[in-house]
Amino acid sequence: MTIDEVGAQPDAVCFDPHSPDLTPEYAYELYADLRSTCPVSHGADYGGYWSLARYEDVHAAAVDHERFSSAGGVYVPAVSEHRFPPIDYDPPEHATFRKLIAPLTSASAARRMEPKIQEMVDRLVDGFIDNGRAELVEDLALPLPLQVVVGLYGLGPEHAAAIRDYSLDFLEHAAGPQAERVMARVSDYWCEIFRDRRAAPRDDFISQLVTLNAEHDVADEVLANMMFILTYAGHDSTALGLSNTLLYLAENPDVQQRLIDDESLIPSAVDEILRYEAPLHWFPRVATEDVCVAGQQIKAGERVLLLFGSANRDAEVFPDPDTVDIDRRPNRHLSFGAGIHSCPGMALAKAEMRIAVATLLRRMPGFRVDGGVERTVPLEGGGRHLGVRRLPVTW
């Protein structure tokens, strides 16, 4: 079947990231349909694109950066002419940006941060535990990763509000004509901080970044785009993952009790809920040459969506995929991607989530939903983000 033949079928099933019907429930129903009937589907909108639904195909494309390029950007359609390092770059440029952020994103850096993360979690929980109720997104899931990011950068607490504000501005306007205005605002914000650190270096990541960059000579405007994507993904994606986890635990007291009885299960439980409810459902690539995926020909230059949210529910890899199994091992989910573009903040995000869950189970066991839960319906961020925006609980 050729691309033209696929595009000519108006009733053919396909994934549309901007569909107003893309609720979490519908998304997973659609993924199951795609995996069984049309694992490589074509959409004619937004300049045309292919979607890969099966784990095997998604993983193979994610690790094959030579044939599936990331240089086309992370949004479909593109929201601006800006590229966001390192996620929008292929080798050799990609390696330069990963070197620049290595002090921030290594597993050892995450381990060193754990005592501070614990302090932050305890301080946040102290702020609401005596009330007997809380709204866990506003009170914990969102402020925690914001505080961690700001602490890593060596910035003052006032920057947390600024980072969240420009992130919300971008989230609202990313697909519209205001995107360039938002990115100009972000660039001005970070370039001013770079100038400040060059004039008065400190013992923090930003000072290290501008010092390391002396040998690479990346323009400040490009570094600003890099800091934008690190701060945006570093707090919002982690907040989505943590809120999904907390909602599941609030609705499943039996799982809570298992984790209370055996805290060593918390890391695998967090991993499994991340598989079950991926915070980010897809990322795009561009084919650099003609390729054949599952018998379907994709031409060089065509855009390809890797449906990580679908791959995570593929029964060929995950038995009983629509059920949370905290004993699932191995758990090769793709919620952090795969290959050179796997999430650089994975170790830090997992540490934040593990410490937050362990602390809540220890200090307020049996927390449960107490009021209306609000989820990202339809999926936000251009049809990619899945999480909880309001989670009232009591205990």
Task: Give a verbal description of the structure.
It is a single chain. A hairpin with a 2-residue loop joins strand 6 (291-293) and strand 7 (296-298). The chain has a single domain, classed as Cytochrome P450 (Cytochrome p450, Orthogonal Bundle). It has 16 helices and twelve strands. A five-stranded mixed β-sheet has the order 1-2-8-5-3. Strands 4-12-9 form a three-stranded antiparallel β-sheet. Strands 6-7 form a two-stranded antiparallel ribbon. The chain has helices spanning 3-7, 24-37, 55-63, 93-105, 107-126, 136-141, 143-153, 158-173, 179-199, 205-212, 220-251, 253-261, 266-276, 308-311, 346-363, 380-383; strands spanning 40-43, 49-52, 68-69, 133-135, 283-287, 291-293, 296-298, 303-306, 368-369, 374-375, 388-390, 392-394. Helix 7 (143-153) packs across helix 8, helix 8 packs antiparallel against helix 9 and helix 11 (220-251) packs parallel to helix 15 (346-363). 46% of the residues are buried. By secondary structure, the chain is of the alpha+beta class. The N and C termini lie far apart (56 Å).
